[in-house]
Design a protein that fits this description.
Blueprint lengths: L1 E13 L4 E3 L4 E2 L3 E17 L7 E4 L2 E2 L6 H14 L5 E7 L9 H16 L6 H9 L13 E5 L10 E6 L7 E7 L8 H11 L3 H20 L3 H20 L10 H15 L5 E3 L6 E5 L4 H9 L4 E7 L6 E2 L1
Parallel strand pairs: 5-7
Antiparallel strand pairs: 1-4, 1-14, 2-3, 4-7, 4-8, 5-6, 8-9, 10-12, 10-13, 11-12
The chain binds ligand DP6.
């Protein structure tokens, strides 16, 4: 009744932004991501008859309370699926520097789903595992796979057709991502709260959803042609559109900080100098920059030179779920 799994985080190039069902975590649009090797979570789950509640250790510290209720709720889903009523000890270690602005929820829930389902005796294929992982955190369902993955939003109200599928494996294309960490003390609107406010109040939300099929078609063509400029420019434009929806929300909000702008402008300036680089931004102020290996040294140096940037962490394409 014990298993250990590792999952790497992913960065969305076509963003998931908006839910049609909050309980089942069903999205309003397909999304597409690249799994990254630099940031991962390793989780051991042990179901034990002697426990009277779930125990959760994060980076060797026993944690409980509201921020971690999502873990208990997710274990309930696993128990229900297996038809077993037994509590678990969960031990998770994050190699995702929280400051890097990568939601550890993507690698966290993917590792928890993999270790938890195995520990309780479920045998799930990738599709079933992705569908289960989705219930913990939407973006996590893409981290089942290495390389490029697409989360198909599905149409059905029970969510049975909403899961991620692999697009290209980890070794298909050496495309890299620099996580640019900023000094920012802005109060954060979580992605869950931010996307709900956008769906409920932003008049720009419809435009966002309507634009997705074209963006997806373009980026998939770019990936199959290994056309970096096409992939980068579609990803950058898609990110800008997602962030534009937040400005139309009520009350309006933005994840950007002054340094966020500086990094965006710097990336555009690098392109003018002939260095291909494109940015994308999730629900926070930090910026992720897509680049090619031959430009790595210059990209790192340039990004580190921007005032307000505190760290630049480089990553390659990562692998899918592994069991240790
Ligand atoms: C901006 O997966 O964190 O990073 O499903 O509510 O847990 P929940 O949201 P989450 O949202 C991620 C939003 C995003 C875009 C993306 O990763 O696709």
């Amino acid at each position: 009744m014990k298993a250990t799994a590792r999952a790497q985080t992913n960065i969305a190039l076509i963003k998931y932004w908006g839910k049609r069902d909050e309980e089942l975590i069903l999205p309003t649009n397909n999304s597409l991501s690249l799994t990254l090797d630099g940031f991962y979570t390793t989780t051991t789950v042990e179901f034990r008859e002697d426990l009277t509640r779930d125990l959760f250790y994060l980076n060797n510290q026993c944690v409980s309370g509201i921020p971690y209720n999502r873990v208990n709720q997710f274990l309930d889903i696993i128990r229900q699926k297996a038809g077993k009523h037994v509590f678990a000890e969960v031990r998770s270690t994050n190699q995702v520097p929280t400051a890097a602005g990568f939601a550890s929820s993507a690698s966290g829930f993917a590792a928890l789903a993999a270790a938890g389902s195995k520990a309780i005796g479920l045998t799930l294929d990738d599709e079933e595992l992705s569908r289960l992982t989705r219930r913990g955190s939407g973006s996590a369902c893409r981290s089942i796979y290495g390389g490029f993955a697409e989360w198909q939003k599905g149409e059905l109200s029970d969510g049975s057709d909403s899961f991620a599928v692999p697009i290209k494996p980890q070794d298909y294309w050496d495309i890299r991502v620099a996580a640019v960490v900023l000094h920012a003390d802005m109060k954060k609107v979580s992605s869950r709260v931010g996307m709900k406010r956008t769906v409920d109040t932003s008049p720009f939300f419809k435009g966002w959803v309507d634009s997705i099929p074209h963006d997806l078609e373009q980026i998939k063509a770019g990936i199959s042609e290994r056309d970096f400029e096409k992939v980068g420019s579609v990803a950058e434009a898609n990110c800008l559109k997602m962030h534009a929806t937040t400005l139309g929300a009520n009350p309006p909000f933005t994840y950007w900080y002054d340094t966020t702008f500086k990094v965006m402008q710097h990336v555009q300036m690098l392109r003018e100098k002939g260095i291909p680089a494109y940015f994308t931004i999730d629900a926070g102020p930090n910026v992720k920059v897509l680049y090619l290996p031959e430009n790595e040294v210059e990209i790192k140096r340039e990004l580190e030179s921007i005032p307000g940037v505190t760290d630049v962490i480089l990553s390659k394409a990562g692998q899918g779920i592994s069991y240790l």
